[in-house]
Amino acid sequence: MSFVSDILDYNRQFVEQRKYEKYLTDKFPEKKVAILTCMDTRLVELLPKALNLRNGDAKIIKNAGAILTQPFGSAMRSILIAIHEMGVKEVLVIGHHGCGMTQLDSGLLVEKFKKNGISEEVIDTLENSGIRMDRFLKGFDRPEDGVKHSIEIIRKHPLVPSYIPVHGFIIHPDTGGLELISDGYEACGKGVEQG
């Protein structure tokens, strides 16, 4: 049996047995928070549990390293929609220790592309079109650097209201322990009691 067949078989049972009922909610985040975090598999269940989040509490946006690569990319678009359409009042950027984006070597990754059948011609065409692989695939030296980079883009974004606190954290992928990297209340001039 294939992975997709297994998923479909399980899903049929899940629906027939009405297991979905305990997850019913609407599209508006109950806690009015959006979270930009890493796609790391260790965080799938751990992060919501470590933050005491249940289904429906938050908008969770995931990508490699919790990095915003540009102010008008898809992850930033999701944050803007969460704020302006979904009632989000705070944004959390959560990186983690042991992230795969730490000291990512873009040159080695390009070599893996080629090994996996991507032609040199495709790479050259992208580079000649202005897609610089060294920038597009850039990681960071420390996860804190990635969090600070993303926070900076969000806080300075012309479409993010200045009163929206943007917080930064690092989570430990084994224990769920959180470290505060940047207090968004201080940065936007709000007191914690106003948050």
List its traits:
195 residues, alpha/beta, Beta-carbonic Anhydrase, Chain A, 5 strands, globular
Structure description:
The termini are far apart. It is globular and about 50 Å long. 38% of the residues lie in helices and 15% in strands. The mean pLDDT is 95. The chain contains 8 helices and 5 strands, in the order H-E-H-E-H-E-H-H-H-H-E-E-H. It has 195 residues and is α/β, with parallel strands linked by helices. Strands 2-1-3-4-5 form a 5-stranded mixed beta sheet, sandwiched between helices. The chain folds into 2 domains: 130 residues, Carbonic anhydrase (Beta-carbonic Anhydrase, Chain A, 3-Layer(aba) Sandwich); 34 residues, no CATH class. A hairpin with a 6-residue loop joins strand 4 and strand 5.
Mean of all residue-level pLDDT scores: 95
Summed up, the helix count is: 8
Low-confidence stretches: none
Q: Mind describing the biggest β-sheet?
A: 5 strands, mixed
Compute the CA-based radius of gyration. 19 Å
Strand order in space, largest sheet: 2-1-3-4-5
Give the total of beta strands: 5
CATH T-level fold name of the largest domain: Beta-carbonic Anhydrase, Chain A
The number of distinct structural domains comes to 2
Offer a quick outline of the entry.
The protein is an alpha/beta fold. The chain is built from eight helices and five strands.
